[in-house]
Amino acid sequence: MSIPSLQPATGTVIEPLAVTFDAGQTVIDLDLAFLARRLAERGVVVERAALAAAAPAAWQHYDRLVDPAGGHPWRELMANLLAGAGIAAEQIPALVEWLWAEQPRANLWRAEIPGMVALARELRARGVPVGVLSNSEGRLAELLAEIHIADAFDAIIDSGAIGIEKPDRRIFDHALAVLGAARGIHIGDSWPADIAGALGAGWRAIWFGQRATPVNEPRVAVAHDADDVRAVLARWLAE
Ligand SMILES: [Mg+2]
Asked: What is the CA(11)–ligand 1 centre distance, in A?
C-alpha cells in the first residue's frame, strides 16, 4: 500500500496549523517488559507474555471504569493486569501501591506506539508545528527525554505542569499559543478528553487506537494505526 505524501498540493497556501498528539495510548504505551523487570525487583517472577495475555481484559475493565469526566482508574487497571498474569491476590495491593508510588520516577508508559514518533518527526520536518498535549503528572517532558523522543516535538504540554486538563478548551488554546498556530488538529485515544475537548476548542480531531469506532462527525476522523493517521493528515493538511 502506498502512503499518501504529507506534502501540500502545489500552490496550496497553508495557514498556520498545528498538530498535537495525546501521550498515553497514542504515542506511548504501557511497557510490559519494563513492568516485568520492576516486579522482579520485588521478587515477583512474571513473564512479559503472561502480562500481554492479561492486558486485553484489563483494558476492557479499565474502559468500563473510566469516568467520562476524565477519571483514570490506574490502580484498577494495574491490579487487574497483575491478577490476570497469575500473580497471587494477596501480593497485588502492595505491588500496585509500590508501582504507583514509583510512577513519577519510573513511569511504566515508556513503550512507543509504532510509527507515531516517526510521524511527528516527519510533520516537523515539513514545517508543521507539532506538540504533545497530555493529561499527565507534571513530569512528561522528563519521561519523553528519558526515552529519547522529546526532540520529536516543538512543545510538550502537560496538564500537571500547567494546571489545566483536557477537555478544558483553555489547554487547547494554550497549545495554539505555544505552537504559534491559528488552528489545530489533535490526535488522541480518549473520546471525552481528546476528541470532545478538541471539538469544544474548535479543532479537528483524529480518534486513535483499536477501540476507536466510526462517528458521524465531519470534524473527526478515526485512525487505528500511524498509517491511518498519516492518510488523514495528508488530506486535511492539503485542504
Ligand atoms: Mg491517552
From this structure: 36
Classify residue 70 as left (phi > 0), alpha (psi -120 to 50) or beta.
left
216-229 pLDDT, tens per residue? 999 999 999 999 99
Neighbours of ion ligand 1 (CB under 5 A): 22, 24-25, 189
Residue 13 alpha carbon to ligand 1 centre in Å = 32
123 and 157 in a single domain? The answer is: yes
CA of 131 to the centre of ligand 1 (A): 14
- Model pLDDT for residues 164-202, shown as the tens digit of each residue: 999 999 999 999 999 999 999 999 998 989 999 999 999
Cα(188) to centroid of ligand 1, in Å?
6
Q: Which three cell numbers stand for residue 214?
A: 466510526
Same domain, 89 and 175: no
Q: How many domains does the chain have?
A: 2
Q: Which residues contact 147 (CB under 8 A, 6 or more apart)?
A: 28, 110, 112
